[in-house]
Specification:
The protein is mainly alpha-helical and 671 residues long. It folds into 2 domains: 370 residues, no CATH class; 204 residues, Rossmann fold (3-Layer(aba) Sandwich). Helices cover 57% and strands 6% of the residues. It contains 29 helices and 10 strands. The strands form 3 sheets. The protein has a 6-stranded mixed β-sheet with strand order 1-3-2-5-7-8. A two-stranded antiparallel ribbon has the order 4-6. The protein has a two-stranded antiparallel ribbon with strand order 9-10. Helix 2 crosses helix 9, helix 9 runs parallel beside helix 11 and helix 14 crosses helix 15.
């Protein structure tokens, strides 16, 4: 089986890497550019399978030679990039971020970064993930994990299953695709990152190599196939975005598109599109595509980390040009010397020994950084400047309180807040944004001589009855059961007269209805409204006075990051750099406000507005005051921030202690 070089496939590589590059640099029209990775998977599966089949047919297959080729392909460009990331990260990152980077370096070195990202619950499209300089290495891990098993599978089929490659690869592809389609609805994070749910994309290329299309199509059909293929890819790149359920069935379009272009170019006459792909500029970008993929993302991530905002058009262009220059250098002076007749380390034993030594060094260094908690001694001054955030009293007790809440149904009594030795008469219920209000409620509780139960729980567990979160990862928590146990607890404690609901109301997430009232097509807005109405209705039926707390303004970036970098660069922190404005706040909370208004029409509820104490005269969020930071991160108040909004609760606590809790009285809305 002869394997001829096809320039159009390098051109297809160029399409894939440019799609990813333009997506990551925020070029308009490339909101789905992440599908470039899926195109890479198809190309890789096709070419590697061709090589393996050729060697197996000749009875010349060697697992050692196979991994020698993989090392020469992957290692030379990868580890200089890792060294660069470590060097820059050691300067820019605070201890927490550098500790995470150390873990990422170790995972990348062991080709397990997809497992690391999944295990530590990193949403690929979320803002925190978009500043991880090794985020992109998840796809390398998927490929290398696939190639641990795939050559052995082909060898096994050849020897023991009558060489029925096509049958078994089709079955494996369908199984992987089926799990991927199921997983995007029920386990989105592992479905995105893990090899078994991505394997079908590589196997699609394998099926082409195995000859699932037996004859090269005619020139007319080839042109039609290639045009349809690029249309599918173009549709995916331009119409998909970070809200698209992916991979699953939505990955079929770019994968099929890549397959059609590869099939179309296999005939004697090159289709028009494939001829364009085979032009020298496209081929060159395809040749440097691996280095370009490796280097572009650290440049993007570090750039956005420092700027703390999206790129301008000129900045995007600068990153693109810089990435192309660095990738060209990497390809010519780092990748190429390890290939060809004059290759470095020509002896296999030498190559394997060098590869092992490099892996041990980088994995060991990553582990050292992780074990030493991010090496805070890199900048004692910067580390000390962040200690108020790192040791915040509210958050040091938050996880311990969650443990109590997990046992509510078994009779656990949650912690109390407010005055000591006073029978609780109110309860705080919500997610971690509710937990951030503990400081405010403690202050007011002590001031008014009132106590309450802290029922706030993290992990985006909003007080929405009958609603189950799907994108909050598996924390071992049944959201519907946990919220139901809160209602049962409140029902068993009639002395609780007021229930304060708080949460991150305005950020959509993937949720499902657990009651059967709504099917999977229901929108976030429908389910949010239904869940909050169920909660308020249940509390009203129990005779509880319901108080809903509006969310606080969210910041553009992390205060601790700003403090660290400012000290490192010998500057005063400019907190307005990360302050959002009122317009952004109102836009984010537009839908929750509509639901709150509907609830007020039907129930006797009170809505209070702590956010009014967190905007300045120019309608910018107040990040710090008198040298004290008001936020723990981009959206959670610190103890000092919580104390700042305490006056917003004056009317609530006045209501708790007056007139024997007359449930017919109505609080005036705090402005």
């Amino acid at each position: 089986m002869a394997i001829n070089y096809r320039a159009d496939i390098d051109g297809l590589r160029a399409v894939a890497v440019l799609a990813v590059l333009f997506f990551h640099t925020d070029i308009p029209g490339f909101s789905g550019g992440y599908v470039g990775v899926d195109i890479f998977f198809v190309i890789s599966g096709y070419l590697i399978t061709l090589i393996l089949l050729k060697e197996i047919d000749r009875q010349d297959f060697s697992i050692a030679r196979f991994y020698e080729r993989r090392i020469r392909r992957i290692f030379p460009a990868l580890f200089p990039m890792l060294a660069f990331v470590i060097l820059v990260g050691s300067y820019l990152f605070d201890a927490k971020a550098f500790k995470e980077l150390g873990q990422g370096v170790q995972a990348t070195t062991l080709f397990a970064s997809n497992l690391d990202l999944f295990w530590f619950k990193s949403d690929y499209f979320a803002a925190p993930s978009l500043q991880k300089p090794l985020l992109h290495t998840w796809s390398l891990a998927v490929e290398e994990q696939f190639y641990i098993f795939f050559p052995l599978v082909l060898l096994f089929i050849s020897r023991y299953l009558q060489r029925r490659y096509l049958l078994w690869i089709i079955l494996a592809s369908l199984l992987s695709l089926g799990v991927s389609i199921w997983g995007i609805h029920y386990k989105p994070s592992p479905t995105f990152y893990l090899m078994p749910t991505r394997a079908w994309e590589l196997l699609a290329g394998s099926l082409l190599a195995l000859g699932i299309v037996q004859q090269a199509p005619s020139p007319r059909i080839s042109n039609a196939l290639s045009l349809f293929g690029i249309a599918l890819i173009g549709y995916s790149i331009t119409m998909y975005d970070d809200s698209t359920l992916f991979p699953g069935y939505n990955a079929i379009a770019p994968v099929l598109g890549a397959c059609l272009i590869i099939v179309a170019g296999g005939g004697a006459q090159m289709p028009y599109l494939n001829t364009v792909l085979a032009l020298r500029p496209m081929v060159f970008i395809g040749l440097i595509s691996y280095s370009l993929y490796l280097w572009h993302w650290p440049l993007v991530a570090f750039g956005k980390y420092v700027l703390m905002r999206p790129f301008t058009g000129y900045e995007s262009l600068g990153v693109i040009v810089t990435s192309l220059v660095v990738a060209t250098f990497s390809w010519k002076y780092i990748e190429q010397p390890f290939r060809g007749k004059q290759m470095m380390l020509p002896e296999r034993k030498q190559l394997f020994a060098a590869a092992a030594a490099v892996m041990i060094f980088f994995a060991g260094f990553g582990q050292l950084v992780f074990r030493q908690d991010g090496m805070p001694y890199r900048s004692p001054e910067a580390n000390n400047a962040m200690m108020d955030i790192a040791t915040d009293p509210i958050w040091s007790q938050f996880e311990e309180n969650e443990t109590f809440l997990h046992g509510l149904k078994d009779g656990n009594t949650p912690r109390t807040i407010g005055a000591k030795n006073v029978r609780p008469s109110f309860a705080l219920w919500g997610d971690s944004h509710a937990g951030a209000l503990v400081g405010a409620l403690s202050i007011k509780g002590e001031e008014f001589g009132v106590s309450g139960y802290n029922l706030a729980h993290g992990h985006a567990l909003r007080p929405l009855l009958g609603i189950k979160g799907m994108s909050t990862y598996d924390y071992g928590i049944d959201e519907t059961e946990q919220n139901r146990s809160v209602i049962d607890f409140l029902g068993a404690h009639p002395e609780i007269k007021v229930v304060i609901l708080a949460g991150i109301w305005g950020r959509p997430s993937e949720i499902r209805d657990a009651t059967g009232e709504y099917d999977e097509s229901a929108s976030f807005e429908e389910l949010f409204r239904a869940g909050l109405f169920r909660t308020v209705s249940a509390l009203d039926a129990l005779g509880k006075k319901v108080v809903i707390v509006r969310d606080v303004p969210h910041l553009k970036d992390y205060p601790n990051k700003l403090i660290w970098m400012s000290v490192r660069m010998h500057e005063e922190p400019c907190f307005r750099k990360i302050a959002s404005d009122r317009n952004a706040y109102e836009e984010m909370n537009r839908f929750p406000e509509m639901v709150f208004a509907e609830l007020q029409e039907k129930f006797d509820i009170t809505i209070i507005s702590p956010q009014e104490l967190l905007f300045d005269n120019e309608d910018k969020a107040i990040v710090a005051r008198e040298g004290q930071v008001l936020y723990m991160d981009v959206s959670h108040l610190s103890t000092y921030g919580s104390a700042t909004v305490a006056p917003a609760f004056d009317d609530v606590f006045q209501h708790i202690i007056t007139l024997g809790m007359n449930t017919d009285s109505r609080l005036s809305m705090a402005k």
